[in-house]
Amino acid sequence: QRVLLLVASDVDALCACKILQALFQCDHVQYTLVPVSGWQELETAFLEHKDQFKYFVLINCGANVDLLEILQPEEDTFFFVCDSHRPINVVNVYNDTQIKLLVKQDDDLDVPAYDDIFRDEEDEEEDSENDSDGSEPLEKRRRFEEEVIERTMKRRQRREWEARRREILFDYEQYEYHGTSSAMVMFDLAWIMSKDLNDMLWWAIVGLTDQWVQDKITQMKYVTDIGILQRHVSRHNHRNEDEENSLSIDCMRIAFEYDLRLALYQHWSLYESLCNTSYTSASLKLWSVQGQKRLQEFLADMGLPLKQVKQKFNSMDMSLKENLREMIEESANKFGMKDLRVQTFSIHFGFKNKFSASDIVYATTSLMENIEKEGPETTNFIKALDSLSRGNLDKLHQGLDLAKKQLRAIQQTVASCICTNLVISQGPFLYCSLMEGTPDVKLFSKPVSLCLLSKYLLKSFVCSTKNKRCKLLPLVMAAPRDVEQGTVIMVGIPPETESSDKKNFFGRAFEKAAESTNSRTLHNHFEMSIIELKTEDRSKFLDALISLLS
């Protein structure tokens, strides 16, 4: 039996896919891999392959809609869904014949009880047949009246039940959020089957780091999951370090570390990394002259010469590199950057190559959303997938170079949006729209890049605004999607607060606003909070959104 793998376009999905491919290889399972970037592609792929395949595996797609409703599969088709999107559609949860959900045991799904949302059809229409046994008309009338009363009561109960059901489902489906990373779920599966390898563990780490880089999970969840993975890391990577030949040239070793929260700094210069990491750039307000001054003061406080800071990290003096983390952290505390260190893992291939988990995430994301070469979407997907294998270091380095370009583009766009006051308060949310012709605007027609930009922009805006109310608002961001077709891509992200639970209400709000104004929208992304919209419908759509959320 061949299996069809349908994989979404995000790094966590790619990592889960790599783990599953390795497991399939162990058991000689034949499969076909189809990348899908949205619902339309998912449906098309299903229709094309439904005659040849009975088993479908969906990675990071499919959990949050009623699959059977959308795909209308035959009775003998089975779906295995491993998806971190929450909430999971209730029909998928309670359908145990055709849909198998892969979730971790301790994941709290908060699914409403079965009886609260489903009712058997039989217990409604059991109107008792009028048995005419020729008894007294009076008797008959009394029985008839009782039946009418009983029926009215039943109808009333049903109406009440339906109203409650709507309320329960509204509460359940109102917010979109993310569960455990799919790569971690797949790794768990491998571990239960005793087939977990160090490579699979690394992919699980990258999948989790992707959720953290994309700001999809809370700090608490991240730290908890890091703890789970740390136990596996020490199980797989303990070697007696004192033996002469404990490291061969082609081995790989994973290590836990408290690393700096600076993007790609080991493959860049420290200066560039400080300027293009959203955390440091927002804290120091680097888009202003004042901020640039503070950056110089920050470097002076550490006692690092500019010449050293601006050259490649690899070429910095060893004496400076040794206690670099401590030096940076100490100075960062004085400048109000208290969370500059983060728990993460790094990987060593042989002697020369060392990468941190976030390096891989940035590199793979930028390969996947590469806009430089016009070609079929799938080539980018395959390249990104390949860059995760340790044999393909050249692809990984290509990804790192692209990632630097993307981070620079994001940082420059953030700076220009803030300096030209493009972020405006619309009442219940902040709104920012990129115009056609802005530099790098093409990059931001891609969903992951646009989301990263929006998150960086909101962080920076919160640091730059004096208005206390604006600091607590969510952000809606729009960018041109396709000029010829006249469409924009729009994303909504939750407020940037310390205690944020990362739950996003824009998915539902977008749907309602589009419905009420008959806007021509396309809800094609697996993230409900990203939509595409005709440019001329934008103003009425926004008006509806404002009145809906006010």
Automatic annotation (TrEMBL):
Q: Where is this region: Disordered?
A: 120-141
To which protein family does this belong? Answer: Belongs to the CDC45 family.
Keywords, ordered alphabetically: Cell cycle, DNA replication, Nucleus
Indicate where this protein resides in the cell: Nucleus
Q: Which gene encodes it?
A: Cdc45
Q: A Pfam family matched by this chain, by name?
A: CDC45
Q: Name one GO cellular component term.
A: DNA replication preinitiation complex
What is the protein's given name? Answer: CDC45 protein
GO MF entry, a single one: DNA replication origin binding
Q: Does the keyword Mitochondrion apply?
A: no
